[in-house]
Amino acid sequence: NAGVTQTPKFQVLKTGQSMTLQCAQDMNHNSMYWYRQDPGMGLRLIYYSASEGTTDKGEVPNGYNVSRLNKREFSLRLESAAPSQTSVYFCASRPQGRVEKLFFGSGTQLSVL
Amino acid sequence: DQQVKQNSPSLSVQEGRISILNCDYTNSMFDYFLWYKKYPAEGPTFLISISSIKDKNEDGRFTVFLNKSAKHLSLHIVPSQPGDSAVYFCAASAIFQGGSEKLVFGKGTKLTVNP
Predict the structure, then answer these.
(1) CB neighbourhood size of A100 (10 A)
(2) Please, which pLDDT band fits residue A1 given cuts at 50, 70 and 90?
(3) Of A33, A104, A108, which to mutate for an interface test with B (greatest number of B Cβ within 10 Å)?
(4) Bond from prior residue into B9 cis (ω within 30 degrees of 0)
(5) Do A99 and B49 touch (CB under 8 A)?
(6) Are B105 and A43 in contact (CB < 8 Å)?
(7) pLDDT for B32-71, tens place per residue?
């Protein structure tokens, strides 16, 4: 049972380059999320998708776009990477219902030079 | 503004003793609280939760206490084990106007349990 799978695990970009972080879950969860974790900042929500076909902004959406490709997959795109986007990115999914827990992927370490 | 605060960035305890991790929140609309544990190079994993209708929830060595009047919750780990060494995130959830849920994480506390 893979759970939440993120690719790649590590990435180095130059300022201005673009890339897409991939996320897939095999638990048939409705909701999916993208978070970033920075030192001393905790986990901050970038975007989320409450169900297939819907996406909404979180706390820190600027510089990012997302696509909920189907129920399994939720990708995060950086169109023009900036050094401020250097971070660890976590994808998460959750069944329907707010008291359900989040299941996180293992993260993508992104460095923008 | 920081709605969920974990004021201690780090905590060090001896194996076998109690670990107490604290969390404060500012918004009284939060009514569901969770703790996540994170090891290096891994994603956070759910540890324990508590609803605002309770003041205590216990799961094995882990107990979460909620003091609504003080807007404070704490996670107790008894007895602490070296494998408990990790970063612990407190999170608070609320349903706001329009039915949208907001889940806010604290900055985390790094727990080190020394053998």
Answers:
(1) 15
(2) low
(3) A104
(4) no
(5) yes
(6) yes
(7) 999 999 999 999 999 999 999 999 999 999 999 999 999 9
